[in-house]
Amino acid sequence: MPRFDLTTVGEGQLRYSVPPGQRLERATQLDVRVACTEANVASLLARLGWHCGWISSLPTTPLGKRVVNEFMLSGLDLSAMVWSDKYRLATYYVEYAAPPRATQVYFDRANTCFTNLTKEQIDWDYLLDTRLLHLSGLTVPLSPSVREIVREALQRAHTKNIAVSFDMNYRQRIWTPTQARAAIAPMLEHVEILFCSRSDARQVFGITGEPEEIVTRLSELTGASFIVSSLSSDGIIGWDRKNRVAYRQPAREVTILDRIGAGDAMVGGVLHGWLQNDFAKAVRYGALTAALALSQFGDQVITTRAEVEALLDAAAPDIAR
Hints:
The protein is α/β, with parallel strands linked by helices. 32% of the residues lie in helices and 21% in strands. The protein has ten helices and 14 strands. Strands 4-1-9-10-11-12-13-14 form an eight-stranded mixed sheet, with helices on both faces. A hairpin with a 5-residue loop joins strand 12 and strand 13. The chain is globular and about 50 Å long. The relative contact order is 0.13.
């Protein structure tokens, strides 16, 4: 029996943001949150009762400890963390906005502890002692050494028959669609679960059409058994390739407080169902956990398995007394 239900590798960061109506260029104070797209997924699953581990590299500074302290609260295992005295912590900045302006995100992720991490520093026995390895396309372009870590992880997982989930997670401020397609398409051959939003399918792979067409065409790019695509406000769709069944789930009614982290929460919810061997229910979980993320501030969803189960079939929100 593997030690973990899910393991992952990705860059821990701090997120600095200003509230809606303020501009970064005039900011006098910033809200500080902890972030990591892969650890967001793993920490949600840890809160839902799964045993999960995360590998990253952080500086031996109070800022590095701030990241660790945040994820420790979820129960995420951090025993394979690579600490560095040489490099810095990644950050990104958010300028929230209301229409007609869009929220803007600015990354500052060059020459960090994580981008200087090498495959020789990875505890492979730890990372591969798992039922499921989760990876993200957001990590691939950060540096040549990090890209090699992702490739190595995919190859080792395939050799050991470990299932892999992969989230496309395209970011236009990090690389171009052509670069993303060339780098990631070969990585998808042995993926078990592929997450690719409708927007990413269009931008990176040139795939458009009805949701069912999008997921079936995505399945032609990979050997994945399951394809999941976020349809933004239209909910999500999951494609069970073996049984040739598509599961549509509308978006849950929600008052949006913070959009960032909703995609990671959706991934975590779907994997919660996959780990229970119930893909139909996984799609329902994904829609719910995405809504929970939208209704909370910060990148991580704070919830419990009991709350998720209670909300899954709840007709409408009410006051809990």
